[in-house]
Write a structure and sequence with these properties.
The chain has 370 residues and is mostly beta strands. The chain has 2 domains: 86 residues; 274 residues, no CATH class. The chain has 1 helix and 16 strands. Strand 4 and strand 5 form a beta hairpin. The longest helix is centred in the first third of the chain and has 5 residues. The N and C termini lie close together (10 Å).
């Protein structure tokens, strides 16, 4: 709410309610302009104390009491200012601001619409898929590595705040589970789990990447990338019966990268090389590099992650390398947010294959504009 020529002084200290001392000459009081009421009567206030200042949403609870409901911006890193002694000027303004709510804990949380909200934007990244573990098999048989998980999809949309409910459920997708390794002769590895969707009520979804299939005597297939309206996750790599693994593909837009497959061992018994994970978000300021491949006894690596609380897709993990004599290497986990995991490598009977790895969790960011 806005009213013209509203300006008062105050000498209140601290972070609590302000006691208003009356209108400046030729101006009117907040009580005259807005009256007393609950948070449904909110307006934008500005407190000017020189080097100490604050802009927020507030209301009048008594004729001279300003309640500082929500701080939008301030000289205290956008938190409530602990005002020191001295006279401040308090006035109403058309100033606009935004509040950002970030959700990284998996599962459901509740978003609450602020009074005075004009528009709400949600940015969602689905979780990455987990990868499969490699097969343990006999000499002269085809032994495929586990497939990589798909990257999470990215979505963004803006609504008029009036369309949304007073609360909306925000669900952050959990990264897909790792497929287990094979620890008995002539057995397959485990399949990777699907990454969870990240959602904002029933309004928007960033799809989770699918899990990579287990390493078997037949080819393994990489998980599909999750779908979103501003980016699709990269697909996970697969492993052919020739033992050749394919790398994870890059996410498009802000989608997460797919994980590389673990390599296999063909009927000719020559262990194949590992492959890398796919690049993360293509909308990031600098490319989020995919994880490196496993080589020999060197484990693969996870790729580059987004900055903390940055809603963009991370890179896929590298796939493990097979061994003709020792255990196969496990895959590398997907990187935040929504990167797919790299697959585990195959091995010969009598040694353990490489396990898959977990996909990265998703993220949701909700921006309320006033």
């Amino acid at each position: 709410m806005y009213a013209a020529h509203v300006k008062e002084t105050a000498t209140t200290t601290g972070t609590g309610n302000f006691t208003l001392a009356g209108a400046v000459t030729n101006f009117i009081t907040f009580n005259t302009a807005f009256g007393t009421g609950s948070t449904t009567n909110q307006f934008i206030y500005v407190i000017d104390g020189g080097s100490e200042w604050e802009v927020g949403m507030g209301h009048i609870s008594a004729s001279t009491t300003l309640v500082r409901d929500t701080v939008i911006a301030s000289s205290n890193s956008n938190a409530a200012v602990n005002f020191s002694a001295g006279t401040k000027t308090v006035f109403n303004s058309w100033a606009r601001g935004a509040i950002v709510d970030t959700y990284t804990s998996t599962g459901a949380s509740t978003w609450t619409k602020r009074p005075g909200a004009l528009a709400v934007t949600a940015i969602l990244i689905g979780a990455g898929g987990g990868s499969g573990g490699g097969r343990e098999g006999a000499s002269a048989s085809a032994r495929c590595g586990g497939a990589g998980g798909g990257g999470g999809g990215a979505s963004m949309y803006t609504w008029p705040a009036s369309l949304l409910g007073g609360t909306e459920t925000v669900t952050v997708g959990t990264g897909g589970t790792a497929g287990g390794n094979a620890s008995a002769n002539s057995t397959d590895g485990g399949a990777g789990g699907d990454g969870g969707d990240t959602t904002f009520g029933n309004w928007l979804k960033g799809g989770g990447g699918k899990g990579g299939t287990a390493g078997k005597a037949t080819a393994s297939t990489g998980g599909a990338g999750g779908v979103g309206n501003i980016g699709t996750g990269g697909s996970g790599g697969g492993c052919a019966t020739t033992g050749v693994a394919t790398a994870g593909s890059a996410g498009s837009g802000m989608g997460g990268g797919g994980g590389g497959a673990g390599s296999g061992i063909p009927t000719g018994n020559t262990a194949q090389a590992g492959v890398g994970g796919g690049q993360g978000s293509q909308a990031h300021g600098s490319t989020l590099s995919g994880g490196s491949a496993g080589t020999g006894s060197t484990a693969p690596t996870s790729g580059s992650a987004a900055a903390t609380n940055e809603p963009t897709g991370g890179a896929g993990g590298g796939g493990g390398a097979a061994s003709g004599s020792g255990s196969g290497l496990g895959g590398a986990a997907g990187s935040l947010y929504g990167g797919g995991a790299g697959g585990g490598a195959a091995t010969l009977n009598g040694t353990n294959s490489g396990a898959g790895a977990a996909g990265a969790n998703g993220i949701a960011v909700v921006i309320t504009s006033f």
